Amino acid sequence: MESYRLACSRATLQNQKEGCFLELAQSLAQKVDLVEFSKCSSDKERVKFCVENCWDSIGAELIFKGKDNEEGNRRRMEGNEAFEKGNLPLALLCYSQSLIRTPKGEGLSLVYANRSALLFKMKEWKLALSDAEMSLSAGYPQEKRYKIYDRMASCNLQLKQFPKAKICLNLAEDGALKCNPKDVKLERRLQKLKETIQLSVELGNNLSSMTAQSQCNSKEDIFHPNTVFPAVASKVDIKSTENEGRGVFATEAIQPGEKIFIELPYASCLLLERSGTHCHHCTKKLMVPVPCETCAHVAFCSSSCCAKAKVYHQYECRILLLLIGSGMSSLSLLALRIVTQMPIETLLSDSKHVCIEPNKIQLLNGQYRGDIYSCIHNLVGGENERGPVDFFERSLMAVFLLKCLRIVGYFGTNLFKNPKPTDVELHVGGLLLRNLQILQFNAYEIHETILPNGNGLEKLSSNHVGLGVYGTASFLNHSCSPNVTRYFHGTTLHVVSTQTIHLGQQITDNYGPIFTKMCLNDRKIKLEGRYWFQCSCVACSNDVRIWCLLKDIPETDLSDRQLQYRSNTLDEALKLMEIPECENAIKILKIYLENTQQLIEDKLNKNFFLGQEAIKLCITASGLKTK
Fold first, then answer.
1. Is 296 exposed, middle or buried (0-12, 13-18, 19+ CB in 10 A)?
2. Are the C-beta atoms of 13 and 393 separated by less than 8 Å?
3. Cβ count within 10 A of residue 587
4. Widest CA span of the chain, in angstroms?
5. Which pLDDT score, from 0 to 100, does residue 112 have?
6. What is the pLDDT of residue 559?
7. Would you report the helix, strand and coil content of the chain in percent, each value rounded to 5?
8. What is the tens place of the pLDDT at every residue in 436-446?
9. Residue 574 backbone dihedrals phi, psi, to 5 degrees
10. CA 452, CA 71: separation in Å to the nearest integer?
11. 273 by DSSP, 3-state: which?
12. CB 475 within 8 A of CB 490
């Protein structure tokens, strides 16, 4: 088990076979005195030891893939050709590739304008409008801008943004009058657009009161946050227990389908292998990528995400290929992101009073703040159970990341005057090492859920796209038979109950090994190897077999009426899932689970678990529609 645990631990540092980091770490481990290293009592001391003994052996240099105007222009021409031939998907691909490669300047503005025209043709009004605005920002030629304003007016008209449509139309008319006064066709078309906008404004005014009334009548489930723990519901509390440490408990009865958590990550990152298909910031799938202004490595789903990512990508941009080449895991990148997402001054201020007290829940002005670094720093890191080899390898990764931060100017250090890390930099190195420890046990896999149009929920699929650390959700303990499920909107974590949770009962998540799909021995090996604990949940304590082997409740235990109700109710929900009508299926499944749980009490029951699996699918699928 010890060797398996070390292998699992190493996989959280480097999970790419082509990388060189672990090979270097294992080589250096043979050259240093690990006994002396074991005497280090803090993360900062461990990093300092590695700096003093291994600094020159750890290579780090800028590896940067910049823009290529020639390649960008070639891709744009290919996009134009595909557009003319009516191959819109290929045109979209070529324009997007062109944007990634084209440097700032007029050329970039032309690509945005071309893609805007394509999206307009595809009736993607909002996206077409966004690209039109980006084209203007990128420096589209003044003498042609009336064409962009014309398209923006039409997009705003389709989006029912009538005041904006009128403004854009006025700009289009002024530009056309100055730059193309003899184009009678254009003049007529703009006049017709003007009349359409005016008519739409009049119709819109008549409908506005009716729309407002319907909005007032609509009822939605409202999430009531806890006053102490804002990311959890008011029916929930977080406290420490003697046997399991910190945990999440119900302070009132929670019914199936109730939302328990809504939490943004403290930090998140896209999996390195998803860089070409998903937003580098929010992890959503790319349709019309917005490029980084400097590099050709990553893309964003919007200009908003691009702007938000600038705080950390300004540093990572110039070392991303180096990080990939090292073979480091996305978890190691997340450890770096926790640092790069804030200026050094903020990091030093936030980390001034950090402590490691696993059973303590830190409150600031009476409230738990999962969005401040001290709370993340105090998550479980397993520091008392780590062997010297594990600690040494993590310390080396921290030093490698520290060296990367130095060469991209994160500290503003003169590298010639200070060839070795300063005391402040060693402090940050210690924080990086702490991050690498806590993320091993607390990082969440961020998943995107895909439901193809026209398909039932049997076609629902989930893809691992990123990692995130959530300061409050990390208090959820594991059970192989959990009473909640979770899903993501981008990087926002949602946790929903899948059964009745009674007053005082612990709310439990699942870390991967679940009894419905994995036998006891396999779960035990996985949990001990990856998370370093032995599970004592009801499924493990009773050695419950995989759910498909479970027997249902004996018919003699229930009346014929109860049996008929149970069978009919579950069948009705499953039929709705085939359509799919998730909202109606959830309503039925909530009642089914609540009533069945009362019947079976604390017994394990196959049909009950089938109902839980069904509501998990429905909640996830309905979440896709109710962003």
1. buried
2. yes
3. 15
4. 90
5. 96
6. 54
7. 55, 10, 35
8. 999 999 999 99
9. -65, -35
10. 34
11. helix
12. no
Cis-peptide into 580, omega within 30 deg: yes
Chain centre to alpha carbon of residue 552 = 38
Q: Are strands 477-478 and 506-509 parallel, antiparallel or unpaired?
A: parallel
Return the residue matching tokens 């689970």.
Answer: 593
Q: How far is CA 131 from CA 103, 111, 127, 303, 406, in A?
A: 16, 9, 6, 9, 36
* Whole-number Å distance between alpha carbons of 174 and 146: 8
What does DSSP assign to residue 57?
G
Residues in the chain: 627
Give me the sign of the Cα torsion angle 107, 113, 115, 117: negative
Query: Cα angle vertex 408, ends 295, 392, to 5°?
Result: 115
C-alpha to C-alpha distance for 79 and 76, rounded to whole angstroms: 5
Query: By three-state DSSP, how is residue 5 classified?
Result: helix
Name the phi and psi angles at 360, rounded to 5: -95, 140
DSSP 544: P
Q: In what order do the strands lie in the sheet with 443-450?
A: 267-270, 461-469, 443-450
Q: Could you tell me if 149 and 176 are in contact, meaning their C-beta atoms sit under 8 angstroms apart?
A: no
State the number of CA atoms in the 13 A half-sphere of 625 facing the CB: 11
pTM of the model: 0.88
Spans of the chain below 70 pLDDT: 204-221, 454-455, 544-567, 601-604, 623-627
CB 323 within 8 A of CB 297: no
Eight-state DSSP code of residue 285 = B
Question: Whole-angstrom Cα distance, residue 558 to residue 135?
Answer: 69
